[in-house]
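To: structure desk
From: M.T.
Subject: fold request, one chain
Message: Could you run this one when you get a chance? Sequence is below, nothing fancy, just the single chain.
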Amino acid sequence: SILRAKDNSIWLGKMKNIWLERLAINLLPKLRLHEDSEIEEFYLYAWGREYVSEILGAGDRSIWLGKVKSLKLKNCAVNLLPKLKLHEDNMMDVCLSGCQRDISEILLKKDRSIWLGRVKSLRLEWYAISILPKLRLHEDNVMDSLEIVNVSRYMLQKGFFSNTIELARSALEVLFPSKTGDSQTEQLLGPGMDGGCCGWKIKKIKMKDSTLYALQGIRTDKSCVLDRFELTNPEEEEVKKIFRSDERVYLGKIKQNGL
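Reply: Done. Structure tokens follow.
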């Protein structure tokens, strides 16, 4: 069986695209790429844990990929993110997606323990939003876009809010202004803290079919100034609930016409 082959024993050299699904994913440690490999798209899809069982025991950053422009991990394959080793000068687009049972392994990782380096864009779907505190980027990284898709409030893990502080309810009003402010950057003031994804440099945040509460794990007054914030199809009842209650959602600083 090819699964009995030794790790790094199957030479592939330089590859443009790598797509592995289901049981084929277990071949990943067996493959050996050229040290100067530049992959356009790296895609892993695994519906069940059995499709990644051979790799879960591998050491972190033990599977060399080199440079990757687009990294997509779906379902149980998301748990393999810590196993991947990227080129130190890599810049990539990342998409992570999975349901609750899919990401159980990666949630055991410590916060800021998964090194991604430089990320151009990051898309998080469904329960993958809870992986956000686990990620660590290069200190000089400037992300063009952070996209949050199909995330409801019950998908957020308890630890997702551990590094955030609730702020005044009036902060939410910036999401639905009656008119754009003056030429000065609109600012919401309140206590915050450094560290983690709240300190990332991000140009744009896009939220589609997602809860506003996800912002509590992303934005504080220590966060960067956004060029733009996009909110598509929020739940009307949830928005009304926030205005009626003492619950807070903090958006932070946005440039004029950024909404």
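Reply (cont.): The longest strand covers residues 63-75. Let me know if you need anything else for the meeting.
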